[in-house]
Amino acid sequence: MKVDKKESILFICTHNSARSQMAEGFLRALYSARYKAYSAGIEPTRVNPYAIKVMAEIDIDISRHLSKSVEEFRGMKFDYVATVYDYGKETCPFFPSGKRYLHKGFDKPSDFIGREDEKMALFRRMRDEIRGWVEKTFGEEHKKAKGA
Predict the structure, then answer these.
(1) Which residues are registered as beta bridge partners of 82?
(2) Rg value, the chain, Cα
(3) Residue of 57 and 108 predicted with greater confidence
(4) Sign of the four-CA dihedral 72, 74, 78, 81
(5) Which CATH superfamily is domain 7-141 in?
(6) Would you place residue 30 in the very low, low, confident or very high pLDDT band (cuts 50, 70, 90)?
(7) Distance CA 118, CA 101 (A)
(8) 71-88 exposure pattern, b = at least 16 Cβ within 10 A, e = fewer
(9) Dihedral angle sign, alpha carbons of residues 29, 101, 132, 88
């Protein structure tokens, strides 16, 4: 019988509409052989259409993702619980079943104002920042640091 050795990660942000959705999308697209990715929000709403668009530009489809509450994951065990929003470290509910906790603050997308092209540019910047963080945190360098 094969034992699943994938580590599980829960990404959390305020609305589970953009930042955590993008992080989940990147982890699934880049490292699904090593990790199981989930995302949730403190106050879930819906997946932001700009997040869907900018991820589609790089061939990652998050259009079928749903915004979920952190309450859906209570009691689940995670190898990592990662907050990806400003003040996340201070305001995130504690998950006692998380082995390790990470925090990386990214700008709040709902604060973005401006024309369509300006919003798209801001979402692209945030997407690229999240990708860089995911690659640095969970990619090959992370694997080497753990001695894998």
Answers:
(1) 11, 102
(2) 15
(3) 57
(4) positive
(5) Response regulator (3.40.50.2300)
(6) very high
(7) 33
(8) eebeeeebebbbbbbbeb
(9) positive
